[in-house]
Specification:
The protein is α/β, with parallel strands linked by helices. The chain has helices at 41-52, 81-96, 153-172, 187-192, 207-224, 248-260, 287-297, 310-318, 329-333, 337-345; strands spanning 8-10, 13-15, 19-21, 57-64, 76-77, 100-106, 134-135, 149-150, 177-182, 231-236, 265-269, 301-303, 324-327. The strands form three sheets. An eight-stranded parallel β-barrel has the order 3-4-6-9-10-11-12-13, surrounded by seven helices. Helix 6 (248-260) packs across helix 7 (287-297). The longest helix is centred in the middle third of the chain and has 20 residues, at 153-172. It is globular and about 60 Å long.
């Protein structure tokens, strides 16, 4: 029987298969006004198509816990009740198709206030509805990026509370899984890495101090997230720097702490915190990081990184390298990837009644 199409249970939640959708920003929300950060028809059609295609878990794109936490002004948010109400349409439809709805809670930190990628992705000022980014230290992400305002301890604690508030709203919106975004050089990842964190207080310096903010966020979210529902954490396993960066060894050490603090699965990605680094990409290039975390800590993991073929995904799972696979661009190209993979591998999958004639 196909490993890819085996159900997977975390706490009291059973996900119907292990072909999952990675969070991918759409940069398609309204930029300002009462509907800023609110999901719209584009988001509904985008996520509904992947649910109808048989995807077992859909993690909604990075959703900001505050207006300042958005990557771009067109990002989704979950800092008010209007946003919550709009999300219910999506979570209800996903559940109706047998798909588990999850959401990635995020703060962009020093990489906030940039334009949409198809407009160049450059940092934006007030005329582009931008704002002043925040970070652990006054270190810009790259040339041409603004120097972020260094967060005070009180501001750090305020943001921790915003993560908890966002988790409460996510539950109210109908999500079954919350994922804390600690990857790709956004705020939590910025605190973790010595490349971006040059603080000399209790939130900087040693590994324990740099991990403090992340673990405080985990504790705050876990305190309000129901015990019967899973909590995920997304990590960049390495900065891809030869020195003075976050490493795979750090990730394994940190994963063990996340497990102790109630995280149920680590979503293992890489990179994003240092500009213009060379990354050796290729099919499944990030899978070894996930496999190492699983082998050395026992924490369940999801693998990402150029996973495109059914047999490739099946091998990752059957070899015990990961507990699930998260597909990104391949699901943009083919919303029905899971159905096609099930046919190829002989797996069982939910098919909407309207599509039964296609069997």
């Amino acid at each position: 029987m196909s490993a890819l199409f085996q159900p997977y249970t975390l706490r009291s939640l059973t996900i119907p298969n292990r072909a999952w959708m990675a969070p991918m920003c759409q940069y398609s929300a309204e930029v300002f006004g009462p509907n800023a950060g609110v999901v719209n028809d584009w988001h509904f059609a985008h996520y509904a198509a992947r649910a109808a295609g048989g995807t077992g878990l859909i993690l909604i794109e990075a959703t900001a816990i505050s207006p300042e936490g958005r990557i771009s002004p067109a990002d989704l948010g979950i800092w008010n009740d209007t946003q919550v109400e709009a999300f219910r349409r999506i979570t209800s439809f996903l559940k109706g198709q047998g798909t588990t709805p999850g959401i990635q809670l995020a703060h962009a930190g020093r990489k906030a206030s940039t334009d949409r990628p198809w407009k160049g992705g450059a940092p934006g000022g007030a005329e582009e509805h931008g704002w002043q980014p925040l970070g652990p230290s006054p270190l810009p992400f790259d040339e041409g990026h603004p120097v972020p305002t260094e967060l005070t301890v009180n501001q750090i604690r305020e943001i921790t509370g915003q993560f908890a508030d966002a988790a409460r709203r996510a539950l109210d919106a109908g999500f079954d899984i919350a994922e804390i975004h600690g990857a790709h050089g956004y705020l939590i990842g910025e605190f973790l890495s010595p490349h971006s964190n040059h603080r000399d207080d209790e939130y900087g310096g040693s590994f324990e101090n740099r991990a403090r903010f992340a673990l405080e966020v985990v504790d705050a979210v876990r305190a309000v997230w129901p015990q019967e529902l899973p909590l995920f954490f997304r990590i960049s396993a390495t900065d891809w720097l030869e020195e003075a960066g976050w490493t795979a060894d750090d990730t394994v050490r940190f994963a063990a702490l996340l497990k102790e603090h109630g995280v149920d699965l680590l979503d293992v990605s890489a990179g994003g915190n240092a500009a213009r680094v060379r990354i050796p990409t290729g099919p499944g290039y990030q899978v070894p990081f996930a496999a190492r975390v699983k082998a050395e800590t026992g924490l369940p993991v999801a693998a990402v990184g150029m996973i495109t073929e059914a047999e490739q995904a099946e091998k990752i799972l059957s070899n015990g390298e990961a507990d699930a696979v998260l597909l990104g661009r391949e699901l943009l190209r083919n919303p029905f990837w899971a159905r096609h993979a099930a046919r190829e591998l002989g797996g069982e999958i939910h098919v909407p009644q309207q599509y039964h004639r296609s069997l």
